[in-house]
Write a structure and sequence with these properties.
Blueprint: H1 7-31, H2 35-63, H3 72-81, H4 87-94
């Protein structure tokens, strides 16, 4: 499947996501009509939006500018495959008389 290139289809896709989200939120509130349920739903939506922003914007612009993510699956693979520094090297640099990065 190729990338979506038509601006009209891209806007339509965005609008459909918005309609689906509003519908789902409305149905959840209709099922449990309370201020608490609405507040928890709003907090959950806000947190997922921030996590999505973190996964794409923050990682690409501040942590690893050379990596471009194609989706959430790409982000998970990035997290699983990235090189991690050895624990012993980190601990050695913190000990008195140990190696220092300065």
């Amino acid at each position: 499947m190729s990338d979506l290139k038509s601006p009209t289809l891209i806007y339509t896709k965005g609008l459909l996501f918005l309609v689906a989200g509003i519908t789902a939120a409305g149905l959840l509130i209709a099922e449990a009509p309370s201020l608490r349920a609405a507040a928890l739903l709003a907090i959950a939506i806000w947190c997922f939006c921030r996590a999505y922003y973190f996964a794409f914007y923050v990682i690409e612009h501040y942590v690893d500018p050379g990596f471009k993510f194609a989706g959430l699956g790409s982000f998970v693979l990035y997290l699983l495959r990235r090189q991690r520094p050895a624990k012993s090297a980190e601990l050695d640099s913190l000990k008195p008389g140990g190696r220092s990065s300065c």
